[in-house]
Amino acid sequence: MSPLGEMTLARLREFYREPAAVFWTFGFPALLALALGVAFREGATRPAAVVVTPGPRQAERVDVLSRDPRFAVSAAGEGEAAAAFREGRAVLEVGGGEAIRFRYDPIHPDAEVARMRAEAAIQQAAGRADPLAVETDPVTARGARYIEFLVPGLIGMNIMSSSMWGIGWVMVEARKRKLLKRLVATPMRRGDYFLSFVIARLVFLATEVAVIVLFGRLVFDVEVQGSLPALALVSLAGAMAFAGLGLVTASRTSSTETVSGLMNLAMLPMFVLSGVFFSTVHFPDWMQPVIHVLPLTVLNDALRAIVNQGAGPIEVAAPFLALAAWTVATFAVALRVFKWT
Amino acid sequence: MGGLVDAAIEVRGLVKHYGKVVAVNGIDLDVARGECFGLLGPNGAGKTTAVEVLEGLLPPTAGEVRVLGSAWGQGGRRLRQRIGIALQETHLADRLTVGEIVRIFASFYDHARPPGEVIATVGLEEKRDAWVMKLSGGQRQRLAIACALVGEPDLLFLDEPTTGLDPASRRALWEIIEGMKRRGRTVVLTTHYMEEAERLCDRVAIVDHGKVIALGTPAALIGRLGGEQVVEFSTAPDVSGDGLDALPGVRRAGRAGDRWSLAVDTVHGTVPALLDHLRGRGAALTALATHQASLEDVFVSLTGRTLRDDA
Ligand SMILES: Nc1ncnc2c1ncn2[C@@H]1O[C@H](COP(=O)(O)OP(=O)(O)OP(=O)(O)O)[C@@H](O)[C@H]1O
Ligand SMILES: [Mg+2]
Question: Fewer CB within 10 Å, N side or C side of chain A?
Answer without folding.
Answer: N
